[in-house]
Amino acid sequence: MKIKIIVICFLGWIGLNACLEDHTNLDYKEVILPDTVRVVDKVNKKTVVLSHSEMFQGSFSLLAGVEVELEAEVVYSGPDQLGYEWMFDGEVIGSEKELKHTFTKEGRLVLFVYRGDKSKVTDYHMVISLVQPFGSGVYVLAKQGGKSVVDFMRYYSQKETVTFLGQPMEMTIPYYEEQSNVFSLYNDGEELPGSEPVQLVWGQGKDKTQVMQVLDRDWRSSVAFYGKTIEKVVGMKDEFVGAPQSLFVKSMVNVGMSTLVYGEQGDAYLRVNYDNGTPNTGRFSSERLRFDDPNDVPDQGWMDVEADLIVADKQVSNNWAIIHEKSKERFLLFSVSSVFMPDMSGGLDYSIVIPFPEVKLKENEVALHHFDKEVVAVLPPLGYPQRLHVIYKDGADYRMQAHTISPDIYSLPHSVRYTIDGNVKLPGDVVALLNKPGTIIQKNQNSSRQDIFYIISDNTIYEVDANGANMSTLYAFEQGRKITGFFRLTPWAAPTATPATQYFSGWLFAVAFDNGEFKIGRLYKDPQQPVGMQCTYLLEKKYDGGVTDIRFIYSNVIM
What we know:
Blueprint (H helix, E strand, L loop, with lengths): L1 H22 L12 E6 L4 E5 L7 E6 L3 E9 L6 E7 L2 E4 L3 E5 L4 E9 L5 E11 L5 E8 L2 E18 L2 E13 L2 H4 L11 E8 L5 E7 L6 E4 L5 E4 L4 E2 L7 E7 L2 E6 L4 E5 L10 E3 L4 E3 L9 E3 L4 E4 L7 E6 L4 E7 L13 E4 L20 E6 L7 E8 L2 E12 L6 E11 L2 H7 L5 E6 L5 E7 L2 E5 L7 E5 L6 E10 L6 H6 L2 E7 L3 E10 L2 E14 L4 E8 L2 E2 L1
Parallel strand pairs: 3-9, 17-21
Antiparallel strand pairs: 1-2, 1-4, 4-7, 5-6, 5-8, 8-9, 10-11, 10-40, 11-12, 13-14, 14-15, 15-16, 18-19, 19-20, 20-21, 22-23, 24-25, 25-26, 26-27, 28-29, 29-30, 30-31, 32-33, 33-34, 34-35, 36-37, 37-38, 38-39, 40-41
């Protein structure tokens, strides 16, 4: 019996040494066992006590793409100087007591502790699991050093004990943390293709799969990646069946399980997103988008779409988009039968029609089928009520017309009904801003689900109500700069919020300027400075090639 036990122990000792030799190039001759080994995550303030056994592993849940600092704390009663080596997935990544490293994939981290001559080594195993940081935050498409980059500014909040007007209280404080060039970081150093970035386009599939398309003016340089992992999906050059004759990308819009891309010359193309419902994947047709109006007299047959602008309902379940044809002074409506999977052949039941009004036009109202006015902006619905706003120029005046769009996707061909819910003349102070070159118009909703508008001109952001009136200054930035991009973030304090909430949470925003500066800031009301809104910046960065686009995602919802 003793002989069997000795043999088993001897074979076990041989097996242990063989396993250790597989882990690293350290020379194992004798295993030492420090009294206590702990690894401290100094960023997240977590400590794990380790044992010399693969059956008793420590574990760390870390934020993907963010540098962490791990430190080994060893209690050792022996006489020798100890050394350290960190190995992750078979590669040595550190040789000091402290490890600073950015993890972009999950795996096993092994800490080797050895004596000065590396002759006696002990291994300690940890499992690294990652938390993807892309649940909430701001994406920035910009040019830096002559290259296109996508940066991510992760949003998080934490409760803190603060003092307000001399009284301690617990408040939720917002923070933003930057990750630079995330596409390169999560695609093995691959640079984002393209040198003329156009915009970022979100899409969401039926299984909540989120994909972002990075558009370049040269469509061959456009590429899509998954929203949660930033892993590359496909490039647009791989998606076209054939090649368009002369497509210089202007914009792209997701409509249900389809995508429309259109160029600077008005040429538009359709893609069926049939890859398991994943948006921004599938195959584009290299033939231009065409339609045959069933109501035209005399019949003009099939006509090419000449898209000056395409916008879509921003709801996840959208099934329509409206197309403005500037040269033909009209709007078209593109609709798909379902936001779910098309048939297995890759076909899609879609239709393009010219909408007709159901009621007689009132004074100053303009029919969508013959919109003989200069269109300034088309603002799609954001929520409920689902109203589409068209701002247009009528002589020296500017007007805004609201519509409710109701497509019938079950008839063949599809048809569309719409109502005109109001047509208002915009006041002089708004008109003065619209006459300035480079003015930006955005739509949002307040806490009562009323549409509100932001007009951004030069260095100032103005707020206008649902009727395009009662303009007020939200905030004016420093003189000598011009705003080129603005996005309202979350949280956005309601006017009825407590003074402490308005002070600590405030109104969050992202803004870009013509000199390449990008800022995430917080507007707030200070009861000790009652006149005007105050501003503090949570994050600041400058891009030498300027900011192209800003997008915001909050709790996996595309804003």
